[in-house]
Specification:
It contains twelve helices and 14 strands. Strand 1 and strand 2 form a beta hairpin. The protein folds into two domains: about 240 residues, DD-peptidase/beta-lactamase superfamily (Beta-lactamase, 3-Layer(aba) Sandwich), CATH 3.40.710; about 120 residues, Methane Monooxygenase Hydroxylase, Chain G, domain 1. Helix 2 runs parallel beside helix 6. The longest helix has 16 residues. The N and C termini lie close together (about 10 Å). By secondary structure, the chain is an alpha+beta fold. The strands form four sheets. Strands 2-1-13-12-11-10-9 form a seven-stranded antiparallel sheet, sandwiched between helices. This is Beta-lactamase family protein.
């Protein structure tokens, strides 16, 4: 399968203006192809296949792989308590009721571990099913709930200090909740390695993989604008020449702060398809891409919103499809990556519209799975 075949399945949506432009990349059987269609924005220049985009939550799989690399290197272990690296997060308290006041708590039954962060079972995250004064307080503290914003959260030490003033929503390990675990994970990895997260990521993962365009700061010559949908119109969410991604952030955000390209994401996906390609062990790749959740956790309110009856590994969603197991994840600014390991296939879709266009995402996935089923 080539990128042009997948692009044929979404070109009508691009031509109809559902998104200004789209980039599709495919790695199949070790061969990589990339195609672009449309423009950088309404009335903009033609979209280039090597454009740099904000990948939002597609940051999470990359950081999860980095965490497993540090585990292999002996800098931390999956069972390590988070307080080993972030002492301010020792002796956690837990809400008695998720809609109750932040002061009404009980002691945590155990410490939060690194594995809890990777599996998003720390006990803190988005709450969809009820009011939650503790999440409201987290928002007021500037901890970064909402779309990614490099200029928002404070530096890691201050971020951790503010987060430490909050109780957990649930007991560690009990419930899957998107997405605050990865903000904490980024701070843990930096402490474990003794370097800022952006440096650790470049030296231990992106550099070895040749992901030269992936990081927390964008190349202004190739960055494209991103947009937010306002009814039938698009408004600029983040420009190109004045982007918030042009300067190093105070808080390199492991939840959604990275920029990247189709080629770089396919290098990352190819590493996983190639059993780690010498960077990760096959056992690490298998652990990352295997569902870690119980049936009850997969049916929980946060999982039901994000996982669509699938599961969660370390930084990736995992689901069984009619054409075999699929893993990957999406970004809220309009990016999507899936791999079908049984077919030695990875594919990425890059747009820059918030929220992602469901019809474009659906056509992308359906085109690939229909082709694989033939």
């Amino acid at each position: 399968m080539r990128a042009a075949e997948v692009m044929s399945g979404i070109r009508a949506q691009v031509d109809a203006g559902r998104v200004p432009g789209a980039i599709v990349g495919v790695r199949h059987g070790g061969r990589t192809t990339v195609e672009a269609a449309g423009a950088t924005g309404p009335g903009g220049d033609p979209l280039r296949a090597d454009a740099v985009v904000r990948i939002s939550s597609n940051t999470k799989p990359v950081v999860a792989a980095l965490a497993l690399r540090l585990v292999q290197d002996g800098l931390l272990a999956l069972h390590d308590p988070v307080e080993r690296f972030l002492p301010a997060l020792a002796d956690r308290r837990v809400l008695r009721a998720i809609d109750g006041p932040p002061e009404d708590t009980v002691p945590a039954e155990r410490a939060v571990t690194v594995e809890d962060l990777l599996s998003m079972r720390m006990g803190f995250g988005w709450v969809w099913e009820s009011d939650c004064p503790t999440v409201e307080r987290a928002t007021g503290l500037g901890l970064g709930f909402g779309p990614p914003d490099p200029t928002g959260p404070p530096a890691p030490d201050e971020w951790v200090a503010r987060f430490a003033t909050l109780p957990l929503l649930e007991q560690p390990g009990a419930v899957w909740r998107y997405e605050m675990s990865f903000a904490v994970l980024g701070a843990v990895l930096a402490r474990a390695a003794g370097q800022p997260l952006d440096v650790v990521l470049a030296e231990r993962l992106c550099g070895p993989l040749g992901m030269v365009d992936t990081g927390f700061v964008a190349d202004p010559a190739r960055l494209v604008p991103s947009y937010a949908r306002d009814g039938d119109a698009l408004t600029v969410f983040d420009g190109a020449s004045d982007s918030r991604w042009l300067a190093p952030p105070a808080f390199p955000d492991a939840r959604g702060g990275l920029v990247s390209t189709a080629a770089d994401l396919l290098r990352f996906a190819g590493m996983l398809l190639d059993d780690g390609a010498g960077l990760l062990t096959p056992a690490s790749v298998a652990a990352m891409t295997t569902d870690r959740l119980t049936p009850e956790q997969r049916g929980g309110p946060s999982a039901a919103t994000f996982l669509d009856s699938g599961g969660w590994g370390y930084g990736v969603g995992v689901v069984e499809t009619p054409v075999g197991r699929r893993y990957g994840w999406a970004g809220g600014l309009g990016t999507l990556w899936y791999s079908w390991p049984g077919h030695d296939l990875a594919a990425v879709l890059l747009t820059q519209v918030l929220p992602p266009d469901a019809e474009v995402f659906g056509a992308f996935t359906t085109t690939i799975q229909d082709a694989l089923s033939r």
